Amino acid sequence: MRQVEVLYKKEAAGLLTQLDNGGFVFKYHKLWFNDTNKPAISLTLPKTQQEYQSKYLFPFFYNMLPEGSNKQTVCFENRIDTKDEFGILITTAKYDTIGAVTIKKID
Fold it and tell me: Among 13, 46, 66, 68, which is least packed, fewest CB within 10 Å?
């Protein structure tokens, strides 16, 4: 199992977990959910107390991944399997993302 904290404008909004079976779970933090001023991180992941579950990396997070030659370079330089989407997300979404969402690895 691997887990990352999902940050929205550098504030902890929720947890994204890759399960041992390869599936994924996303859940908002209770404090984030209870604060009516805090937005959902994505239209496809509205604020709710339920856990979102998927067999695959959620499209919102998948769209944060590099593609093509950038993906190849990231994987080569960091020794990550090109099929390890979660590993690539952990490596690339720490700092440089297009939107307000970043990822922080939980040690």
Answer: 68
Domain boundaries, position 88: 2-105
The phi, psi pair for 78, rounded to 5°, reads -105, 5
For the stretch 27-78, pLDDT in tens is: 999 999 999 999 999 999 999 999 999 999 999 999 999 999 999 999 999 9
Q: How many domains does the chain have?
A: 1
Distance CA 13, CA 9 (A): 9
